[in-house]
Amino acid sequence: MPAVSLENVTKVYGEETVALDDISVHIPEGEFVVVLGPSGAGKSTLLRVLNGLTAPTEGEVRIGKDPVGGANSAVGMVFQMHYLIESMSAYRNALTGALGRTGYVRSLFSAYATEDKTAALEALDTVGLLSEAQQRAGSMSGGQKQRVGIARALVQNPDLLLADEPVASLDPKAASDVMGYMKSAAKERELTTIASLHQVNLAREFGDRFIGVRDGSVVFDGDRDALTMDAVDDIYYGDGGDEPPEALAENFEDESDEEEIPQ
Ligand SMILES: Nc1ncnc2c1ncn2[C@@H]1O[C@H](COP(=O)(O)OP(=O)(O)OP(=O)(O)O)[C@@H](O)[C@H]1O
C-alpha cells in the first residue's frame, strides 16, 4: 500500500480556476519527493489537499489507508515562513509539535510527558541543534529557525512530512544545509516527504523522485536521471509554450539595432 495516494484529484477554486486537474500520484513509504513547477502551477494546492487544509473538488486523497479529511495530525508541515514563537527557546518551539498529544492547557503548565521532551531533544539533535536547544528562536539565523521548524514537525511523529518552499527565503548555503538536514531526518526515520522547491539544483541534489506540475497537471514524474535540462525546461515552459531564455538566446536578433536612433 502506498504511503500517499491521490486518485483523480481535481481542485477548482471558485467558478473556473482549475488548480489541480485530474491528478493521480502514488508515493511509497520513505520516498523523498520534490515537486517542481512554475508559479501558479498548483504545487501549494497539491500540498494543501494532502494536509487536509483544502478539500479536493473531485477525487480521493489517502495517507496510508485513511482518507484525508480536515487538518491531519499525521501530517507534519514545514512552511516557507517558520512560524516559530520567537521569545521561546528552540527546545520549547520543538516541543509545541507535541501539542496534539498534550493539549493546550497542559502545555501552558509545561506538563509535557517525558517522552515528548525526549522527542524534542532528539529532533533538535537530528537537525544539528541540540547544543542550541536553550537558545531563543528570535536570536537564531533563518536557516536555524527553519531547522527548528523541521524539528517541531518531527516531534509530531507524522506519517508524512510536507514542506512548502521550505528554503525560498534562505541564502544558497543555508538553503542547502536545511535541505540536507531535512533529507537526513527523513531517511533516518523512513519518513515519506514531499517538498515543493523552486531551486532546481537543490531539488536534483536531494530528491529521490521529482513530480513536475504545470497548469494543474503532472507533466513529469521520474528520478534524477530522467530529470534532464530538457525535462526541466518542459516542466517550466511546456513543449508548446514560450521558449526559455537560454533557447531563445541562440538565435536571438535584436531587431531594434536596425532602427535609426533619433538624434
Ligand atoms: N485560495 C485560492 N482561491 C482562489 N484561487 C486560488 C487559491 N489558491 C490558489 N489559487 C489559484 O490556483 C492556482 C494554483 O495555485 P498554487 O498556489 O497552488 O500554485 P503554486 O504552484 O504553489 O504557485 P507558487 O509557486 O507561486 O506558490 C493559481 O492559479 C492560483 O491563483
Distance between the termini: 73 Å
Could you name the ranges where pLDDT drops below 50 across 5 or more consecutive residues?
Answer: none
| Oligomer description | single chain
Count up the helices.
10
Relative helix content:
25-40%
Overall CATH class of the largest domain: Alpha Beta
Q: List the secondary-structure elements in sequence, H or E.
A: EEEHEEEHHHHHEHEHEEHH
By secondary-structure content and strand pairing, the structural class works out as alpha/beta
What is the residue-averaged pLDDT? 89
The count of strands amounts to 10
Instruction: Briefly note the CATH topology name of the largest domain.
Output: Rossmann fold
Q: How many domains comprise the coordinates?
A: 2
- Net shape: globular
**Biggest β-sheet: count, sense, barrel?**
6 strands, mixed
Small-molecule binders here are: adenosine-5'-triphosphate
| Beta-strand percent range | 15-25%
Radius of gyration: 21 Å
- CATH homologous superfamily designation of the largest domain: P-loop containing nucleotide triphosphate hydrolases
CATH architecture verdict of the largest domain: 3-Layer(aba) Sandwich
Q: Which strand order spans the largest sheet, edge to edge or round the barrel?
A: 6-7-8-3-9-10
Biased composition (Acidic residues): 240-263
Pfam family, one: ABC_tran
GO molecular function, one term: ABC-type phosphonate transporter activity
Region (Disordered): 237-263
